[in-house]
Amino acid sequence: xxxxxxxxxxxxxxxxxxxxxxxxLAVLPDLxxxxxxxxxxxxxxxxxxxxxxxxxxxxxxxxxxxxLLAGLTHHLHCVMHSAxxxxxxxxxxxxxxxxxxxxxxGWWSHVLIDVFTHSADFYPSPVFYPVTYWGLDGVAWNTPWxxxxxxxxxxxxxxxxxxxxxxAR
Length: 169
Fold this sequence. Notes:
- Helices cover 67% and strands 0% of the residues.
- It is mostly helical and 169 residues long.
- Helix 1 (2-11) runs parallel beside helix 7 (144-168) and helix 2 (16-43) runs antiparallel to helix 4.
């Protein structure tokens, strides 16, 4: 998201507040999902183990959690990764402000990226939640070849943005 904001800024200036809010909204879906686990980690000695196991889990190796905690993290994941929910928030803000609120690109970029980078086996992104749990069976983000490709693409994008920025100066 930060690279996207930097590229956008080269064509149409963005203020720091807008960029900060967009980046914040880009990480919000995962932070909201992790909030109950962070609360558990802060309140119990076993909590850190569960949080780390959850954050580093592979398909089929998710940590055992209480039904309440598992349900809460699951539904927060579904709500925050739903295009229907993001669309409702976007529409509400558009009606209220009379325009599209630019920082929402952060949330939308997260939803869009996760749709294609989560497999049906491992935290699929339910794009049409709460109507359905259906999600595209994409490439799991933690597949080694995909991680290497992803980080190389990020590095390449950063080089292009930096190169354009340095030429403009």
